[in-house]
Amino acid sequence: MRRAGIAGLGALAAALVVLGVAGPASAAPAPAPSKPDKPANQLNKHWRFDASSVAVTDVARVIGADRLWNAGITGEGVGVALIDTGVVPVPGLRADHVVNGPDLSLDSQTEDARYLDTFGHGTHLAGIIAGSDGANFTGIAPGATITSVKVGAYDGAVDVSQVIAALDWVVEHRSDNPKRPIRVVNLSYGTDGVQDYQIDPLTHAVENAWRAGIVVVVAAGNGGTAAPKLTNPAYDPYVIAVGASDTNGTVLPHDDSVADFSSRGDADRRADLVAPGRSIVSLRDPGSYVDEANPTARVGDNLFKGSGTSQSAAVVSGAVSLLLQARPNLTPDQVKAALTRSAVKLGGSDPGQGAGELNVALASVTPAKGAKQTWAPSTGTGSLEAARGGSHLALNDDVLSGEADLFGPFDTAAWAKASSAGTAWVDGTWMGRALTGTSWGASSWAGLTWSGLTWSGLTWSGLTWSGLHWSGLTWSGLHWSGLTWSGLHWSGLHWSGLHWSGLHWSDESWN
Q1: pLDDT at residue 241 in the model
Q2: What's this model's pTM, rounded to 2 decimal places?
């Protein structure tokens, strides 16, 4: 597949020159994929040009992914770590292309919820990145492999320390499957912390992944023009910070604009580029938290639509997977350079677009040799509390805050040293924390091998949600409540008696 794909890129490059795909004025409608998305086409008949619903196949046309499909590029052989709320085996996800990493979420203490996406966010993004059932649904990189590292609980509750632990795990296990190594991390997560990136622990964790050869794609946030800066870690200059574009109901970029909810950042840090993120139709997670709370977002029985820079980041993660199959020797810095140099400038002067809108077909033939970022690195020795920003996990009236994680005092200097050395995880423990057994994760991960954590043989109908009560799960017998996934417009929600305004998981809305 790879050789055929590379050979096909020569013809693709020639076609791009002939078609003049250099900007909005000369862009032409892309040919349909060789294997059309049948249900999406049925939906297209009714709503493809309705700005409130956008099929992933149309997103593929907007960003040029369909041209790479036609050249034999599907993301095959590229692993994408999805650090999110888990993934469930719904129609549209291939069992042999989804692998479970550890479940680091609070749900891990409930056997029926372990690994599974009880919230609904991760499954939606997995579909955008690598969905494929051979006939009915196609993501941006249908050949890529998803490694699901669950950190968000049934209501989205998560602490920044769990995300940091997940990043460390990905770095240390990136090459466990040499045929499908993890080369991309999708992190549709961010806090409103404003600590200097040069000392922040979360930015240090993403930079360690970047230096390990993993392209880190981060949602810019959904604060619109009101946000003072991009979310953490999107404001780290090394990663690919992704804003959202609005296709305005067409598959041509000439009328695209920066979505109103997309964070504009500040003069120090803008999004690197934008990708479609309004009302993206992807896979539904039946019975999940967001599915039950937002029934109007359902599209038929199997699909669901959501808006936000989360979706945009997933689009870019899929595009990076295509690019890395086509050009496997690219470094993360070169990937970022190819994407930003080839982005299509949108009309107007909105600084929130960064370099412009993603065009992965152009990126596949854009020179990036010698590209190297030289920003000052993060030491990671700053405050864990400052990395959290304004939202916290809460246990009844006790708020998790200060320089502590779920297990007690946390020394960022000691962690930063271990993380940089790739030794934060040792024998299933992270910084001495037993993330297995009864303290975190039960037996959800210990003793299981990487290759044994696939979904082969599992079907959606064979899984149950028994024992899951949406009014609250227990964690080692303790009740937790919380919502840290941003922009779900559930006004009036309170978290253990405290109202939190901080936005963490980057979804603007489910509509």
Answers
A1: 99
A2: 0.82
